[in-house]
Design brief:
Blueprint lengths: L1 E5 L6 E5 L5 E3 L14 H8 L8 E2 L15 E5 L3 H6 L9 E4 L5 E2 L5 E3 L6 E2 L2 E7 L15 E8 L2 E2 H6 L4 H5 L5 E2 L4 E3 L10 E6 L2 E7 L7 H9 L9 E3 L21 E6 L3 E9 L2
Parallel strand pairs: 5-17, 7-13, 8-19
Antiparallel strand pairs: 1-2, 1-14, 2-3, 3-4, 5-6, 9-12, 10-11, 10-17, 11-14, 15-16, 15-18, 18-19
Length: 281
């Protein structure tokens, strides 16, 4: 299934994308695409609904983040060998873990703000993993059983804040609008192999990132298992699993976002995001 949330910011309703690309309203069955709704039991109930009987949403609404009430927004750095090389950094022996503030989360097509004093706002297409069942000390073999689904994430970054402001990556990752998520939460049954998905990102029609999850250094199952050794993962937690090469920092000369730029990014089977960039007020 392709689940989504639609409507004004902060007032999103749950929905489902049918086989004809139409949004069907799920608010008569679940309160939100969040928390307990992400359990296998509830997802199975949604999957058994007669989709044709669900109300059609006809007014082309705004698409919100595909999961609500995110408790933790966890990111993995330097998880593609070729991206680590373009960043001038060695591949880590264990996953590099950092957090984005949940206040950075926006819809997949919302406007992206360049923060005040920014000089190096960058893009990163990433595979997002949404947890559906609590995970604590899980094995790699069982890790994917704890996944509700997958989505597209743009892990926007301000490189000067990230690398030169006391070494805290979170400073360069957490600006408002730096976490577009969606458009769809694609349930794990529709993604049999998350390690073989093509992905891309364009800026102003030029392709900068053109990669695949098959070149991840640490795969999704290993990441979930590893994280669960240090913290419990809860339904609705989001994990952003790293980016392939082609980020602005890796260009020669370095290239960064400016007001008026337009981004398009997507992952095979998970949908497309489109964002316009503006200067923060």
């Amino acid at each position: 299934m392709k689940l989504l949330r639609y409507g004004p910011f902060g007032q999103e309703k749950p929905g489902l994308l049918d086989d004809h690309g139409m949004i069907r309203d799920l608010s008569g069955h679940v309160a939100d695409i969040a928390g307990d709704t992400l359990s296998d039991a509830v997802l199975n109930v949604i999957g058994a609904l007669d989709v044709a009987s669900l109300p059609v949403v006809t007014d082309a609404p705004r698409i919100g983040p595909c999961v609500g009430g995110v408790g933790k927004f966890i990111c993995i750095g330097l998880n593609y060998a070729d991206h680590a090389a373009e960043s001038g950094m060695e591949l880590p022996e264990e996953p590099v873990v950092f957090f984005k503030a949940t206040s950075s989360i926006i819809g997949p097509n919302d406007v992206v703000d360049i923060p005040r004093n920014s000089v190096k706002t960058d893009w990163e297409v990433e595979l997002g993993v949404v947890i559906g069942k609590p995970a604590k000390y899980v094995s790699e073999a069982d890790a994917l059983d704890h996944v509700a689904g997958f989505c597209v994430i743009n892990d926007l970054s301000e490189r000067d804040f990230q690398l030169h402001r006391s070494g805290q990556w979170v400073k360069g990752k957490s600006a408002d609008t730096f976490g577009p998520i969606g458009p769809w939460l694609v349930t794990r049954d529709e993604v049999p192999n998350p390690q073989n998905l093509s992905m891309y990102l364009d800026v102003n029609g030029r392709r900068y990132q053109d990669g695949s999850t098959k070149t991840m250094h640490f795969n999704v199952a290993m990441i979930i298992s590893h994280l669960s050794q240090f913290m419990s993962l809860q339904p609705g937690d989001v994990i952003s699993t790293g980016t392939p090469p082609g980020v602005g920092m890796g260009q020669k000369p370095e290239t960064y976002l400016k007001p008026g730029d337009k981004m398009e990014l997507g992952i095979e089977g998970l949908g497309i995001q489109r964002q316009t960039v503006k200067a923060s007020a």
